Amino acid sequence: MERSVIVTGGSRGIGRAISLGAAKAGYQVCVNYAHNAAAAGDVVSEIEATGGKAITVQADMTKEADILRMFETTDRELAPLAALVNNAGIVDTASKVEGMSLNRLERMFTTNITGPFLCAREAVKRLSTAHGGKGGGIVNISSVAAKLGSPGEYVDYAASKAAIDTMTIGLAKEVAAEGIRVNAVRPGVIYTDIHASGGEPGRVDRVKSMVPMQRGGEAGEIADTVLWLLSDKSSYVTGSLIDVSGGR
């Protein structure tokens, strides 16, 4: 049966690895991006080169209209939706809480919390057996920061991911009887571009000595966990928060 998945922030880093892995697993893929159309197009080209089907859809996770358009485009151009991966998220430059502006906090929480909530809402409307759907899976990308707190650097980011953890648990219980499984993956320090956007491209190498495994993780290691959670191999797993963090 043909099926599709929406991967928010699917053009780079962890999102790119998830998009490519989902295509290999047989999904048609909506590769969402906010700004980098070229990167998203490269992911689609790579999927199509191996016989898969994918589309790019620009949508800003802070704008409800964009999110609605993303889902409607997927409905129209791809197979029936079977999964959502809430991967899009932002981090800001390292700062103590006392130095955080209202603008920073609003941007952080709208992107990292409200966006995933709206995406989950739209996915449930399509997946839930109570709405005539066939069930499916939602995987939220959280962070090990949710339990560490990220003091002195990213307490706002950590708090936003803690909210995602709670949403995962609550929504999982809410829709468990409607054929939808909801889980979260909490990456540790992973080699992706997000560190550069936070002003420290070499952050993984700086902090990896604090990881019990003494190394940073790779995007593919996160993607493998996400795809397991979307597969039938995890059919009795819902409401779970899985750390992929090298033991941190």
TrEMBL record:
One of its GO terms (molecular function) is oxidoreductase activity, acting on CH-OH group of donors. Gene3D superfamilies: NAD(P)-binding Rossmann-like Domain. SUPFAM superfamilies: NAD(P)-binding Rossmann-fold domains (SSF51735). Keywords: Oxidoreductase. The keyword Ribosomal protein does not apply. Belongs to the short-chain dehydrogenases/reductases (SDR) family. This is SDR family oxidoreductase. It comes from Sneathiella litorea.
